[in-house]
Amino acid sequence: MADFDWNDHHRQQVLQGRQILERTSASLARSNQIAIETEHTGHEVINELEVQRESLLRSQRRLANANDDLSKSGAILRAMKRNVLYNKLILIMIIVMEVVILAGMLALKFM
User: Any transmembrane segments, and where (predicted)?
Assistant: First the structure.
């Protein structure tokens, strides 16, 4: 009878070991599935980040071009302001010369 208990004890240990092994296997399978899903999610994130990076680089290039265009526009506006100022000065000088000539002609006429 002692031999029978001994076999039963070993059988219980083997069954418990098998249950532990099955639980461990299931846990490993779940961990493997989670790792696969995580890897898939990581690839999706990397792809999305690459698309966003390209978009940001295009935006950066457009902003650099816009900045260059603004600099050129600013230079053109400064030149136009300078030309307007010169034109005003020339117009004022012409008006002053006409007034001086008119005053000189009136002075000659009445003298």
Answer: 89-108
* pLDDT tens digits along 62-108: 999 999 999 999 999 999 999 999 999 999 999 999 999 999 999 99
| The two structure tokens encoding residue 107 | 């002075």
What single string gives the DSSP state of each residue in the chain?
Answer: -HHHHHHHHHHHHHHHHHHHHHHHHHHHHHHHHHHHHHHHHHHHHHHHHHHHHHHHHHHHHHHHHHHHHHHHHHHHHHHHHHHHHHHHHHHHHHHHHHHHHHHHHHHHHH-
Round to whole Å and give the CA distance between 73 and 71. Answer: 5
Q: Which residue has the tokens 């002692």?
A: 2
Length of the chain: 111
Question: For tokens 């390209």, what's the residue?
Answer: 54
CA distance 100 to 94: 10
